[in-house]
């Protein structure tokens, strides 16, 4: 049996182990260790490479980015900034067609710029937006689908944990990945808004329980407007955080790690000023930060070990040669990778997909002359779609569990996210066809 055949069998074994329920980190370690041992017929080498990877895998200042941005996102979540952002967006967009749906997308877009985690957005806006949308005559399934669909913005609009993980795995600048995510993220948000307005106009029964009553309610001028001073007070904290973190990062004043530290400190000040950080909440935030950060860092160490095994097996070079022989070309390769990720998204979580695919696909993309920043945005958008597709659809299940409404089934929420998936597929295609979308500011 050739080394290449062993490599392909080991990748297949990894997917099988994950599907059988083994945690992805342990599966990566096991497959990589077995692969190095079998290919080189040397168990001592497998142990030495494991020791080297564990020791040096995350021994870099850059990796502090992960716990700092996680801490910032969790502090923002407990500060009710998401609720305030939605209330202001609701006030400003009340008279717009599908105003609350558009407000949910707008609030998610802003909230994503300080959290970077889709699940956090889904949990926050399920509690805030869905009850308000139901009160104004929106169908519960559509309201829940809108929250789930727009929550994926947190994975693309910087700072995003998926962009950080991709940057580490592909060995590209995390700051560069953040910049590459700006235009596609705004395109996605704009596409969602356009879609919501179009669907409401063309298929009002899909959106509203009583379209005629909702139209009258939108025209109602008796509702007392929110004072301008109150709106500004609600928006100031999140705007300051966005300007502080992203402004400092994009101007070159902060490194990504420093931006995470400044952002976490700023979020702490916001939480303290709002008196939302009691001893219980502080302990919960610190504990969640530790659990999430250690889990991600362990995954990155495992992925580094897995990448070394793939290199020893010669798998990336072999697949690159195979792709070149088929004549797919750069665009064809990106379409193929996207299709594979869409299928994997139905059965695996987003981090697992990145850890399995990027060590194999990124070297091939680089060999084919594809800009790795553009390739990363393509990969992340495809992974985001997996957050909404059955049967896994983690964002959908997060919304369903947080909503806890027996009248709204998981299947109904999946149906409500279908228009969002269509928009995401369109943006994915545009990023593949037009590299400048991702590389405009690089």
TrEMBL record:
Protein location: Cell inner membrane
Family: Belongs to the TRAP transporter large permease family.
Organism of provenance: Roseibium aggregatum
Gene Ontology molecular function: any one: transmembrane transporter activity
Record domain TRAP C4-dicarboxylate transport system permease DctM subunit: where: 12-437
Matches recorded under InterPro entries: DctM (IPR010656), TRAP_DctM (IPR004681)
Protein name: TRAP transporter large permease protein
Keyword presence, Nucleus: no
Record membrane topology: Multi-pass membrane protein
Spans through the membrane: 6-39, 60-82, 102-130, 142-168, 174-207, 228-253, 259-277, 289-307, 332-365, 377-400, 420-441
Job description of the protein: Part of the tripartite ATP-independent periplasmic (TRAP) transport system.
Quaternary organization: The complex comprises the extracytoplasmic solute receptor protein and the two transmembrane proteins.
Top-level taxon of origin: Bacteria
Keywords: Cell inner membrane, Cell membrane, Membrane, Transmembrane, Transmembrane helix, Transport
GO cellular component, one term: plasma membrane
Claim: Transmembrane is one of the keywords in the record: yes
PANTHER family for this protein: C4-DICARBOXYLATE TRAP TRANSPORTER LARGE PERMEASE PROTEIN DCTM (PTHR33362:SF5), SIALIC ACID TRAP TRANSPORTER PERMEASE PROTEIN SIAT-RELATED (PTHR33362)
